[in-house]
Specification:
By secondary structure, this protein is of the alpha+beta class. The chain is built from 9 helices and 9 strands.
Length: 281
């Protein structure tokens, strides 16, 4: 069922890209929203979970049944970790480390996700220096893991939901929310030659909202390791089956503008752990 927004929240909704941050550096029209008002609005974007999900469950495979109310068509993204099947007015989504069957990207797509842009400034000397001194490992997966840890350690400032800060702003101010963590991580990956894309979705029991047993808006990163896209989450520390992707983009706010409408109208109808029998077992 659609979660209602009061008039003041609609102003903020028009300005926010995800539940984490606003899509532009300009304030919304009218009075500036306070942090408390932003949090009030974010509360309206929490999606109740039908079950409590332990860390152990989220480390495995979970099958979700999702629906939008009112029902409508939506381009649910399939990734290397997320398999999607439409079933009437609902969609069945399986999530685990290897659940997805996304096709490999072409050269143009990889070039897009390796190029800098206005929010992911991977060519900036400050970003490049941060990435070079932080990265370790011989494989893209290992290198992204160390970069995610470095971003998480670097972001020591307060959590703030009032702007969609770019990667340089995150690096210099060391504060923000999941969006800034993701943009700095995406920029750092590109700075060392790893194509990265930014994922907008929801995550179970996000530390950025402080609410248990709900799904909250969240942003994280996927990196191309030469074979598949693999998630890295500097904000929450780890990726798991509690992450549901709703849109994928290059880090600019354009790709995220429809996500709020989806989250506001989203219902998680069921969430079931999946245990698969090994082949030959």
């Amino acid at each position: 069922m659609r979660r209602a927004l009061h008039a003041g929240a609609w102003l903020l909704a028009a300005a926010l890209a995800t539940g984490c941050a606003a899509p532009t550096r300009s304030p919304p029209p009218g009075p500036v929203m306070t942090t408390a008002q932003v949090r009030e609005w974010l509360d309206l974007l929490h999606v109740p979970s039908p079950v409590r999900m332990s860390a152990t469950a989220r480390a495995g495979e979970i099958e979700y049944r999702l629906a939008l109310r009112p029902a409508r068509a939506y381009a649910w993204p399939a990734t290397g970790e997320q398999r999607v099947r439409v079933d009437g007015d609902a969609v069945v989504v399986n999530i685990c480390a290897t659940c997805g069957d996304e096709a490999a990207p072409d050269a143009a797509t990889l070039a897009r996700y390796l190029a800098p842009n206005a929010y992911v400034q991977s060519d900036d000397r400050r970003i490049r220096a941060f990435a070079r001194r932080s990265v370790r490992g011989s494989t893209p997966d290992a290198r992204m893991h160390t970069l995610a840890e470095a971003v998480r350690a670097h972001m020591t400032g307060p959590i703030s939901f009032t702007a969609y800060g770019d990667a340089i702003t995150a690096l210099e101010q060391r504060s923000g929310d999941c969006t800034e963590y993701a943009l700095l991580l995406a920029a750092s990956g590109r700075a060392v030659g790893i194509p990265t894309r930014v994922v907008y979705g929801i995550a179970y029991a996000s530390r950025f909202t402080g609410r248990p047993h709900v799904f909250a808006p969240h942003v994280w990163v996927q990196a191309w390791n030469g074979t598949r896209w693999v998630s890295a989450d500097a904000g929450l520390g780890t990726f798991g089956a509690g992450h549901i992707a709703l849109a994928v983009g290059d880090g600019t706010p354009t790709q995220s503008r429809a996500v709020n409408e989806v989250i506001r109208d989203l219902e998680v109808l069921s969430a079931t752990g999946v245990v698969r029998t090994p082949a030959g077992g």
